[in-house]
């Protein structure tokens, strides 16, 4: 996995989790959903890179 893509994936996961937790704390369900989507996108980006690595070897 390239270091840049791995960093992007982890950054999206952390940002999404942070947004989701803060939104839950202030009872903003629509913002919590956006945070969860951002976190899921980061997880999918990481999974994509791991799959690419498995085919390259």
Task: Give the gist of this structure.
The protein has 57 residues and is an all-alpha fold. It contains 2 helices and no strands.
Biggest pleated sheet: none
Helix and strand succession? HH
- Got a strand count? 0
Helix percentage:
over 70%
Structural class: mainly alpha
Distance between the termini: 11 Å
Can you offer a commentary on this structure?
With 57 residues, this protein is mainly α. It is built from two helices and no strands. α1 packs antiparallel against α2. It starts with a helix and ends with a helix. The relative contact order is 0.22. The model has no long low-confidence stretch (mean pLDDT 91).
Task: Write out key terms for the chains shown.
57 residues; single chain; 2 helices; mainly alpha
Question: How would the blueprint of this fold be written?
Answer:
Blueprint: H1 3-25, H2 29-56
Helix pairs in contact: 1-2
């Amino acid at each position: 996995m390239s270091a840049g893509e791995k960093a992007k994936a982890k950054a999206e996961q952390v940002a999404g989790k942070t947004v989701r937790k803060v939104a839950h704390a202030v009872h903003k369900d629509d913002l919590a959903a956006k945070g969860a989507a951002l976190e899921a996108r980061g997880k999918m980006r990481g999974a994509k890179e791991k799959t690419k690595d498995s085919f390259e070897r």
